[in-house]
Write a structure and sequence with these properties.
The complex is a heterodimer. Chain A is mainly α. Chain A is built from 16 helices and two strands. Chain A is globular and about 85 Å long. Chain B is α+β, with helices and mostly antiparallel strands. The chains are: A mainly alpha, B alpha+beta. Chains A and B meet through helix 4, strand 1, helix 8, helix 9 and helix 10 of A and helix 1, helix 2, helix 3, helix 4 and strand 7 of B.
Chain lengths: 602, 342
């Protein structure tokens, strides 16, 4: 199949004269690469934007890790990058908080929400369900452009005179509402709020599109129980986004009112800079309820796509059906549902009624059950498999490890009585970086390595992928595992330095070790970047179905066609996980192959 | 530390060697066979899986050995002991799951790698297995939930005795003030509009309960073995009163009042002896991001015998005794009555 179209690859150096075989009208440069309505191009736009934002956020984390390992030590290159915010190469305390804030914001929203869902929902939904494109190409384009503009604003806010937002990525008011409280709550916070409002608009347009597409545009034979788990994950993710992001939008809007128009939704009885503010009757806790009503589903908005991607990759690369397909769907749905009724576990010590706290303890710990089912199903899929260790497969296995390793400490944090003493300490930082940060980014890398041939028609280099994975994996454990101990020493997060307290003197070594591993992991990402961009232009040409996979996207021509398939759409006859089916010659049976006489459907 | 740097440099050299190697390989592989991953690579990664398992578990044990001394000492409060027991119970389950699942995962990954001629077992589901690993976690979690909620209710429920010390911790950027209820054992009412240099906590001077209140900065004292009833307020942004040695924490939220109570069980002097550290002090930290000096917002806590405590308290000045000019009294009805919001 691949040979007939081999001359028509998307590489833009010779793209303009290579399309003589096509019947559709060839769009010009702007329509093709910039204001594209093609889901495959939009997917790449999301990916490249997220890669850029990811590099920025990672650099910020290295800046503040240097300060944490060697507080007060001068690093001239900090002054080079940060100018007046690092006089003499020593990081300013306000800028420290700004870096922490923007690092978190970019990673959670721009890399792991926009980047992960944006890239893979866009690429895979139409291709895996057998659709010509998204339900609305135009809304899809708008979705990217809102995301892009919000990324630009967030990035630009780093260069503001008074600094970017610096109230933590959770921007709790009153700190985020009052410029007098911290300089970052001036223009920087305005920029943050505007950027996030645009981000939410983009995310909603995208999510609605994903839902409509999955529900309406499945090809003939593609029933819901024949969908690959990726699509189930993207669908539930999109539903979570549609239900929860508007709540963040209202939280942001009310905060804008409080900041600019003198309302008092979140402000009450405040005395600051020698002045008693007029606002009274509001509640800062209201903001936290609204924020975490999004914030907790957000964790799963980040995680579910990663779990969907790895389900697909582990099955394909183990040459085995995913174990417990229906249980996997059930656990995605259960996790999605429960994620809406657990937000209070972020607020056990806000003065919340202890009984209400108990309810949140109960619902939160319930999530451990579908999560455990998922982990065990992954492991059973590996059992007696025939695993091909592509870089994507390594990241998928890595995800299972981090998902479990970070997940188990959630059992501690969900227990309100135990949360009292580790709330807001490094124990929490360790927990969510492993379970959410590392797992989700592993899912993203997994997806990039696995579907690179679908994105760019070329293969990424395996060897570099291996080096990248092993360094990153060691780095994740090296950076985040010791943080548990920092937390158990009682060290709060978002501290500029720990030398004001003799009780933290013993943490100096740990902080140096953590920063060392952080620098190592950051350098390892350089290997990925090289591989990514090098392979884009010089990588080995991809064959039609390099991983011998069952799903529909591998039946579409390698070169990108508008409308995905020449001629009619493929028809689906079986579920996507017929790997190593007995009595079959090949160890995979694509979804388009009709059932043989007497063959049982799954 | 030195080993660590050597390790990183070593890994770095390895990476660059691979990098150089790879640029060559990538060109030679162009248009290569259908098979994307060589047998050698599969074998290498399968072995690395085992290596990774050893690294994870080894690193875990090494950290316990190296870093255990940094962990907080035994709890200095009554409920804290309960928390620590619950912690240990949960932690054993957590560590067990972490170790067992990682072992199984990496073992399978390293054992079942691709070999030519092998075929994976077509094993798509088993209701029995799936039930087993739904029910077993459910049982463990039920125990964890029930035990956890019992401890939580004990801690947040009413104290055994209503008799005790009443203290307010007042947070502002970037320091703490403690207010004792005084002889009447009652904190006076407040109104944030009354804040002046001489009335930093906005006490209502018309409220008779406020005149004997005692304000301290820098450190505050607690009697050992008596229940302490804390209430918390904030002047500007959210702070969090964190007393890690007592396993106690509560947010200080502007516009509302929060509460926590506990009973200290070990005096500062005893703890110094236990830790063999003459300079040790219990501390109150801020644990909610509150601005540039968030990292240095502290107050020492001195736990002492009741006699020592009473002697110390007697030396402190009462609020009314401070020679403060009369602030314009707020109308009585705007004064916030003392209340708990929840």
């Amino acid at each position: 199949m691949s040979t007939s179209h081999a001359t028509v690859h998307h590489d833009h150096h010779d793209g303009h004269h290579a399309h003589h075989e096509e019947h559709h009208h060839e769009p010009g440069f702007w329509r093709k690469y910039v204001f594209s309505t093609d889901h495959k191009m939009i997917s790449k736009q999301f990916l490249i934007t997220a890669v850029f934002m990811g590099v920025v956020a990672m650099m910020l984390s290295i800046f503040f890790r240097l300060q944490l390992a060697w507080p007060g030590k001068s690093f001239p290159f900090l002054e080079y990058f940060l100018g007046k915010w690092a006089p003499g190469g020593v990081l300013d305390p306000n800028m420290y908080l700004a870096l922490v804030t923007i690092h978190g914001t970019i990673m959670v929203f721009f890399v792991l929400t926009g980047g992960l869902s944006g890239t893979f929902s866009n690429l895979l939904i139409p291709l895996q369900i057998g659709a010509r494109d998204m339900a609305s190409g135009f809304l899809n384009m708008l979705s990217f452009w809102f995301f892009f503009v919000s990324s630009l604003l967030m990035f630009y806010s780093l260069f503001l005179e008074t600094g970017p937002a610096s109230a933590g990525w959770t921007i709790y008011p009153p700190l985020s509402a009052l410029e007098e409280a911290i300089p970052g709550s001036g223009v920087g916070m305005t920029m943050w709020l505007v950027s996030m409002a645009l981000f939410i608009v983009g995310s909603l347009l995208g999510s609605l599109n994903y839902i409509v597409t999955v529900v309406n545009l499945r090809t003939k034979g593609m029933t819901m129980t024949r969908l690959p788990l990726t699509i189930w994950a993207f669908l539930v993710t999109a539903i979570l986004g549609v239900l929860s992001f508007p709540v963040l939008f209202s939280a942001v809007l009310l905060l804008i009112f409080d900041r600019s128009f003198g309302t008092s939704f979140y402000l009450s009885d405040i005395y600051i800079s020698g002045q008693a503010l007029e606002q009274t009757g509001g509640s800062p806790i209201l903001f936290q309820h609204l924020f975490w009503f999004l914030g907790h589903p957000e964790v799963y908005i980040v995680l579910l796509p990663a779990l969907g991607i790895t389900s697909e990759v582990i099955a394909t690369m183990s040459r085995k059906p995913i174990f417990g397909y229906r249980a996997m769907i059930g656990s995605i749905l259960a996790i999605g549902f429960l994620s809406f009724i657990v937000w209070g576990h972020h607020m056990f010590i806000t003065g919340m009624n202890p009984f209400l706290g108990s309810v949140f303890v109960f619902t939160t710990l319930l999530i451990a059950i579908p999560s455990a089912v998922k982990a065990f199903n992954y492991i059973t899929t590996l059992w007696k498999g025939n695993a091909v260790f592509s870089p994507a497969m390594l990241f998928a296995v890595g995800l299972v490890s981090t998902f479990v390793t970070g997940g188990v400490t959630g059992i501690i944090l969900a227990d309100s009585a135990l949360d009292i003493n580790v709330h807001d300490t490094y124990f929490v930082v360790a927990h969510f970086h492993i379970v959410m940060g590392a797992s989700a980014i592993f899912g993203m890398f997994c997806g990039v390595y696995h579907w690179f041939p679908r994105l760019y028609g070329r293969m990424m280099n395996n060897k570099l992928g291996y080096v990248h994975f092993w360094f990153t994996f060691v780095g994740v454990f090296g950076v985040f595992f010791p943080m548990h101990f920092v937390g158990l020493a009682g060290a709060p997060r978002r501290y500029y330095a720990y030398d004001a307290f003799p009780m933290f003197d013993s943490l100096k070594d740990i902080n140096v070790v953590i920063t060392g591993f952080a620098i190592m992991s950051a350098l390892a990402q350089g290997i990925f970047l090289f591989n990514f961009f090098y392979s884009m232009f010089r990588g080995k040409k991809a064959s039609q179905n390099p991983w011998r996979s069952n799903t529909l996207e591998w039946t579409a021509p390698v070169e990108h066609l508008h409308g995905n398939w020449p001629g009619s759409l493929p028809e689906v006859h079986r579920w996507p996980y017929d790997y190593s089916k007995p009595d079959k010659e090949e160890d995979f049976v694509p979804q388009t192959v009709p059932l043989a006489a007497g063959e049982e459907a799954h | 530390m030195t080993y660590f740097i050597i390790l990183i440099i070593g890994l770095g050299i390895y990476a660059f060697a691979q990098l150089a190697n790879v640029v060559q390989l990538s060109s030679s592989l162009k248009g290569g066979p259908e098979e994307q991953v060589t047998d050698k690579d599969n074998r290498f990664n399968a072995r690395m899986m085992m290596g990774m398992l050893i690294f994870i578990l080894g690193f875990f044990v090494w950290q316990i050995k190296e870093y255990s001394h940094t962990i907080l000492p035994e709890s200095a409060s009554e409920h804290g002991v309960e928390i620590d027991t619950l912690w240990d119970f949960n932690m054993w389950i957590v560590i067990l799951v972490f170790v067992v699942v990682n072992i199984v995962l990496f073992f399978f990954a390293s054992k079942y790698y691709f070999k030519k001629g092998n075929r994976a077992t077509f094993f798509a589901h088993s209701t029995k297995l799936e039930l087993i690993w739904t029910i077993i976690p459910a049982i463990f979690l039920s125990v964890i939930i029930i035990y956890g909620l019992k401890v939580w209710t004990d801690i947040t429920g009413p104290a055994e005795s209503k008799n005790g010390v009443i203290i307010e911790l007042y947070a502002k950027q970037f320091d703490w003030t403690a207010r004792y209820a005084g002889k009447d054992n009652k904190l006076g009412g407040t109104n944030y509009k009354l804040i002046t240099d001489d009335n930093p906590l906005a006490l209502d001077k018309n409220d008779p309960a406020s005149s004997d209140d005692i304000l301290t900065k820098g450190e505050f004292h607690l009697p050992v073995g008596k229940e302490v009833f804390f209430s918390f307020r904030s002047r500007d942004v959210i702070h969090s009163a964190y007393m890690p040695h007592f396993r106690a924490q509560m947010n200080c939220v502007p516009g509302m009042e929060t509460q926590f109570h506990f009973k200290p069980t070990i005096t500062t002097a005893e703890m110094r002896k236990k830790l063999n550290n003459e300079k040790f002090d219990y501390v109150l930290l801020c644990n909610k991001i509150c601005g540039a000096s968030h990292f240095n917002m502290q107050m020492n806590i001195i736990v002492e015998t009741e006699a020592e405590y009473n002697a110390w308290l007697a030396k402190q000045k009462e609020f009314a005794a401070k020679d403060a000019p009369a602030a314009p009294a707020a109308p009585a009805d705007t004064t916030k009555p003392k209340m708990a919001l929840n």
